[in-house]
Structure formats: structure tokens, C-alpha cells
């Protein structure tokens, strides 16, 4: 049974114990934590202290507090880059900076995925595109599916640091990404570009995968830039 936590550094220690629980239980993003009451009893702390620790973890992106549902793991604890909760409001420069950063990173990711991904991983990538294809008429679901495609592709590249960088970029700039989807407009063309990238990666054509990802992101940047300038 857990021993009572000393008052000194109480909040820090509760936070650390929650993270240790997530790690030791092998919880993954989307998994639900025990109830606040159960965690309070486990760590021998008052419920208000536990709630404060959970709010701290929510601010750094480690967990998500869903009203009426519970607390869910949000981020992979192995990630080295955490999302800054103090984001500025959406603006033109943030959108264009995001697109430029992705254009620098993702072509290499596509090329590496074509070299390193297993067949089972490529099936997972294809499934994410199937989900996007079924959501072309619903922007919120389409946004989630599209971002999932890019996240999975980054993971398949085999470089954990790059995958974390892209994941953090996407999460930090979620509002900008949604605005980019609205500005780009052509859902079918965007989806077909993703399909072509998948085909190149599945066919083990690294250079073609890099070229197609470069062309895709450049096309998005050009269309969005024109829309913003209008």
C-alpha cells in the first residue's frame, strides 16, 4: 500500500505518482485513468490536491480532463517535446510558419517511411486514409483523420524524435490546421494526394514518396497563401 506523501513538495510528488501510474500500467493515449476517488485513496492525498495535480498535467498535454467522463491519457509519456498551453491566437504568420516547417520535415519522413515501414504498419496507414475518405463531407472528422495519417506516417519513418516534433507541431497548431483545411477547400484533391503518397510508400519508392509529399505540401501552402492574401 502507498505511504502518505509528506507535505513538502506535495503537489510535485502527486504529479510524479500519477505519471508513474500511467507508465507502470502501460496506459496509452486515449486510455482512461481510475476515478479521482480511487487515485486519491491510492496516493493517500485529498481529492482537491489530486485535482490540482491533474490540472497541471492537463496544462502540459499529458492528460485530458473530460467533464462527466473522467481523465484520459493524452500524450505519449516518451515524447520529448511538450505542447505549450499558452498559445497565441490564430494569425497569418503562424499559419505560414507551420506550413513551412511541415514542408521541411515531412518529405524526409515520407522517404524514410518508404524504407522502414513494415507491411502491418502500412495497413494501419491505409486504414487512416480510409477513415479520411469516409469523412470528406465532415470537416471535424476529416481533420482528425488527416492529421492521424500524417502522425502515423511520421511514426513509420522510424525516428522517434522526428515523430515527436511533428506530433507537437500538429497539436500545438491545431487551430491553424483546421483553418488550413477550410482555406484549402478541395477535399477530393487533398485526399488523392494522400493516396498517391501512400501508394509510393507502400511500393517502397522513397524518392517518389519524398517528391509527392513535397509537391502536396507546397500546393497546400500556395493555395492557402493566396486565400490569406485575398
Strand count? 2
Which sheet architecture does the biggest sheet show?
A: 2 strands, antiparallel
Radius of gyration: 20 Å
Helical stretch count? 10
Order of helices and strands: HHHEEHHHHHHH
Protein name: Transcriptional regulator
Keywords: DNA-binding, Transcription, Transcription regulation
Pfam family, one: FCD
InterPro entries: GntR_C, TF_FadR/GntR_C, Tscrpt_reg_HTH_GntR, WH-like_DNA-bd_sf, WH_DNA-bd_sf
Explained architecture:
The chain is mainly α and 230 residues long. It has two domains: 10-73, Winged helix-like DNA-binding domain superfamily/Winged helix DNA-binding domain (Arc Repressor Mutant, subunit A, Orthogonal Bundle), CATH 1.10.10; 92-229, GntR ligand-binding domain-like (Four Helix Bundle (Hemerythrin (Met), subunit A)). Helix content is 69%, strand content 3%. The chain contains ten helices and two strands. A two-stranded antiparallel sheet has the order 1-2. A hairpin with a 3-residue loop joins strand 1 (63-66) and strand 2. It is elongated, with a radius of gyration of 20 Å. The chain starts with 9 loop residues before the first helix and ends with a helix. The mean pLDDT is 87.
Detail the topology: elements first, then pairings.
Elements: H1 10-24, H2 36-43, H3 47-59, E1 63-66, E2 70-73, H4 92-116, H5 119-133, H6 139-156, H7 160-172, H8 174-184, H9 187-202, H10 206-229
Antiparallel strand pairs: 1-2
Helix pairs in contact: 1-3, 4-6, 4-7, 4-9, 4-10, 5-6, 5-9, 6-7, 9-10
Amino acid at each position: 500500500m502507498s505511504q502518505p506523501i509528506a507535505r513538502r513538495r506535495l503537489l510535485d510528488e502527486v504529479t510524479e505518482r500519477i505519471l508513474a501510474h500511467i507508465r507502470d500500467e502501460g496506459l496509452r493515449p486515449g486510455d482512461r485513468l481510475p476515478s479521482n476517488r480511487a487515485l486519491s485513496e491510492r496516493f493517500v492525498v485529498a481529492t482537491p490536491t489530486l485535482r490540482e495535480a491533474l490540472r497541471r498535467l492537463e496544462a502540459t498535454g499529458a492528460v485530458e480532463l473530460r467533464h462527466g467522463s473522467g481523465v484520459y491519457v493524452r500524450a505519449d509519456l516518451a515524447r520529448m517535446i511538450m505542447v505549450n498551453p499558452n498559445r497565441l491566437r490564430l494569425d497569418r504568420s503562424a499559419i505560414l510558419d507551420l506550413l513551412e516547417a511541415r514542408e521541411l520535415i515531412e518529405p524526409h519522413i515520407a522517404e524514410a517511411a518508404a524504407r522502414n515501414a513494415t507491411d502491418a504498419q502500412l495497413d494501419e496507414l491505409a486504414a487512416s486514409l480510409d477513415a479520411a475518405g469516409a469523412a470528406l463531407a465532415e470537416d471535424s472528422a476529416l481533420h482528425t483523420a488527416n492529421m492521424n495519417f500524417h502522425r502515423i506516417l511520421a511514426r513509420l519513418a522510424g525516428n522517434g524524435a522526428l515523430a515527436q516534433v511533428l506530433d507537437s507541431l500538429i497539436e500545438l497548431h491545431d487551430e491553424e490546421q483546421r483553418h488550413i483545411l477550410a482555406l484549402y477547400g478541395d477535399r477530393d484533391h487533398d485526399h488523392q494526394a494522400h493516396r498517391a503518397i501512400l501508394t509510393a510508400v507502400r511500393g517502397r519508392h522513397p524518392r517518389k514518396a519524398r517528391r509527392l509529399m513535397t509537391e502536396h505540401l507546397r500546393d497546400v501552402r500556395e493555395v492557402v497563401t493566396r486565400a490569406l492574401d485575398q
